[in-house]
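user: Please review this fold.
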Amino acid sequence: MKKQLPYKNRKKGFTLIETLVAIFVLLVSTTGPLTFAQSGLRSSFLARDQIVAFYLAQDAIETIKSMRDNSSIQGNDWLAGIPVQCFTAGQKCQIDTIGNVEVTTCSSGGCDPLRLNNNNQFGVGGSGPASQYTRTLYLSEIVNDREAQIIVDVSWDTNFLSDRSIIVQENVYNWVPIFSQ
């Protein structure tokens, strides 16, 4: 007859399989919230970029309206200061809204990216670093000496999505037509 050995506790720790299952459960439970956090961050960055792009487009429109008002009040042509070439169909133009306000035509390769100056303002040219935003103007005079259409296309490069753009359109009117006759 065999002699029975006293019972020994053989459960002194986790087995390798139990450890792997525990790590897998922990990994799955932390991946879900991290995915939601990443998605939230991506959405907030996109929203920030869209807001900046919209304000850059609105800035261009408001600057052109200011140019129109100043020209009209001084008795000049209501669209003075805007090159005639900018009213050619499909011609891309750009506007520098800081310092000396200037509307210029873009090169055949397209408009240059906006640059940040020392005050973190977006402008055309200068020695500051290039931003991710490019602002393009399309101008057309709809009713001769009465109404013009401004289309501003602000596009930008994102790190995680394809390039994005926002287009803002507004019609401006010659509100002082007697001065331009």
Q: What stands out?
A: Residues 16-73 form the longest helix (58 residues).
